[in-house]
């Protein structure tokens, strides 16, 4: 039976016993339609004894709350006796409650929704049959609804004394339905600041973000609630580069206007026309297609890391988001017009001033490893047997035709520019190889050192750079070996500044500098 037809059935002729097979806990979206005159929801995981179950049912149907004002007594007080001691006393208390709630015109209808009903077989197996026959034993209009992630075959008693319930199966949501549901969870408060992570103006970007998150995590996480938890943890970091550009653009507009006297209205108060003009939507543009692709390319590896950590609850969402926050130097756009300097940029530059020569060289090597294709390493750092550099730049070759003429072979550029695609992850072994090649380039300077000692110290330095958010680990594995995937967090301007301090020509070791 379809879950959408169940409210109509409960209104016309409510069955005494219903079992809902709900693998992904979607019955929460239909709870309001299942309520009767008196409704109570109970989680069977909390019912560790029959007394707890009886107390939850009676107090819930009677809308009785246990507090210090009533001496922490249950419904009925001392006059009704200890009705939670056994099943017989519970039936008597239930009958008395139904008689008190009965009116002259109609008889009250009760609905008991038991979540995780499959746990009754492990905790209270002797109560499955009595609960299924509660309407018959109490002689009242009661509907017992078992909601379980397991089918009825795995929940029913083995001796077969339970009546057959009305079986309701809630199918899992499709991919389109899941994405639509996650997008609908985007909050729409009545009034929010213009620069806010849940600004309604950001909802189109949130839709692309949800689609990318679902495609990366749907194979391992299919529960919409868990996907919503992961999406809420990653969204503040995903949208932070856009908000930083909005902050910088707003500060630039305000500094360009200079001091101004706010206009006054007819009542003598200050008018908010200037603030409304500053809050126009056109002043806060959404990322373009290229900028959105850059954001998705940068954050997509963290989606799988988030599902591996947050789905089993190995770490709290807020702590994970704080640890995996994007670097302050990352921008959603590589355009010079939008690459405005903010306070985060100045703090990052101040941080780089205190780095040693070895650390700066490691950061330059990480930038080269992130933006150079793997196949170009041998060309960019190739040397002859005499130690002379021999670099082969990219370009078309010369091919002879059948008639003996020579023709220039044009290689079309079909891929997206790596500067637009953002930094790519690289293994630790490749990073060490590029770092040693750059050390050979600087052998005439103060970088002469013992390679064995430096290789031991480099693992510790890499860990420190990850903690400083100058490097990023893209994998969920905590071990540090040659296959550990890393990614740079610095931009082109900072890498050029460090390369200039190290007397390196960055344009000579980058394959694509556009």
Explain this structure to me?
The structure is a single chain. By secondary structure, the protein is α/β, with parallel strands linked by helices. It has helices at residues 6-12, 31-34, 50-61, 87-101, 120-123, 128-132, 134-138, 175-184, 203-217, 224-257, 273-278, 289-310, 317-323, 343-353, 357-371, 377-380, 418-421, 428-441, 451-467, 492-501, 506-509; strands at residues 17-21, 38-43, 109-115, 141-148, 166-169, 398-400, 406-408, 426-427, 471-473, 485-488. Strands 2-3-4-1-5 form a five-stranded parallel sheet, covered by helices on one side. The chain has a three-stranded antiparallel sheet with strand order 8-10-9. Strands 6-7 form a two-stranded antiparallel ribbon. One of its GO terms (molecular function) is DNA replication origin binding.
Task: Spell out the key features of this protein.
10 strands; 44% helix; ORC5_lid; 21 helices; Origin recognition complex subunit 5; DNA replication; three-stranded antiparallel beta sheet; Rossmann fold; ORC5; single chain; nucleus; 3 domains; 514 residues; alpha/beta; Arc Repressor Mutant, subunit A
What's a quick, concise take on this entry?
The protein has helices at 6-12, 31-34, 50-61, 87-101, 120-123, 128-132, 134-138, 175-184, 203-217, 224-257, 273-278, 289-310, 317-323, 343-353, 357-371, 377-380, 418-421, 428-441, 451-467, 492-501, 506-509, and strands spanning 17-21, 38-43, 109-115, 141-148, 166-169, 398-400, 406-408, 426-427, 471-473, 485-488. It is α/β, with parallel strands linked by helices.
């Amino acid at each position: 039976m379809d879950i959408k037809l169940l409210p109509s059935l409960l209104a016309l002729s409510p069955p005494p016993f219903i079992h809902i097979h709900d693998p992904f806990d979607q019955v929460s979206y239909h709870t309001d339609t299942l309520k009767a005159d008196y409704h109570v929801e109970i989680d069977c995981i909390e019912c560790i004894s029959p007394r707890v179950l009886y107390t939850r049912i009676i107090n819930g149907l009677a809308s009785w709350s246990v507090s210090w004002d009533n001496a922490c007594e249950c419904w009925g007080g001392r006059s009704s006796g200890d009705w939670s001691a056994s099943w017989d006393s519970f039936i008597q208390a239930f009958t008395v409650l139904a008689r008190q709630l009965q009116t002259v015109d109609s008889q009250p209808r009760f609905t008991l929704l038991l979540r995780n009903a499959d746990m009754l077989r492990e905790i209270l197996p002797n109560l499955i049959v009595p609960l299924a026959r509660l309407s018959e034993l109490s002689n009242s209009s009661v509907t017992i609804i078992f909601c379980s992630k397991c089918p009825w075959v795995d929940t029913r008693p083995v001796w077969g004394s339970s009546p057959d319930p009305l079986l309701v199966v809630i199918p899992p949501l499709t991919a389109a339905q899941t994405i639509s549901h996650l997008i609908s969870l985007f909050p729409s408060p009545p009034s929010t600041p213009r620069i806010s992570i849940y600004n309604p103006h950001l909802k189109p970007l949130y839709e692309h973000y949800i689609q990318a998150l679902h495609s990366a995590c749907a194979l391992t996480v299919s529960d919409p609630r868990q996907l919503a938890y992961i999406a809420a943890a990653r969204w503040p970091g995903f949208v932070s580069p856009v908000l930083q550009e909005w902050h910088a653009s707003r500060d630039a507009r305000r500094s360009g206007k200079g001091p101004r006297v706010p206009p006054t209205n007819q009542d003598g108060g200050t008018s908010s026309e200037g603030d409304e003009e500053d809050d126009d939507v056109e002043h806060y543009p959404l990322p373009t297609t290229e900028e959105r692709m850059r954001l998705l390319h940068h954050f997509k590896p963290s989606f799988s890391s988030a599902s591996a950590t947050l789905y089993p609850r190995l770490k709290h969402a807020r702590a994970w988001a704080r640890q995996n926050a994007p670097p302050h130097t990352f921008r959603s756009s590589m355009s010079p017009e939008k690459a405005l300097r903010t306070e985060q940029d100045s703090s990052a530059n101040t941080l780089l001033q205190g780095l040693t020569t070895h650390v700066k060289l490691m950061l330059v090597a990480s930038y080269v490893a992130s933006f150079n294709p793997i196949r170009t390493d041998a060309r960019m750092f190739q040397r002859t047997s005499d130690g002379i550099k021999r670099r082969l730049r990219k370009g078309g070759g010369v091919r002879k035709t059948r008639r003996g003429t020579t023709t220039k072979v044009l290689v079309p550029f079909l891929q997206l520019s790596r500067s637009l695609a953002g930094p790519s992850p690289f293994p630790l072994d490749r990073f060490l190889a590029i770092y040693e090649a750059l050390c050979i380039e600087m052998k005439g300077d103060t970088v002469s050192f013992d390679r064995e000692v430096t290789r031991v110290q480099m693992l510790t330095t890499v860990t420190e750079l990850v903690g400083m958010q100058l490097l990023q680990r893209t994998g969920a594995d905590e071990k540090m070996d040659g296959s550990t995937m890393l990614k740079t967090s610095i931009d082109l301007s900072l890498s050029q500044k460090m390369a200039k301090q190290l007397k390196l020509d960055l344009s000579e070791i980058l394959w694509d500098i556009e």
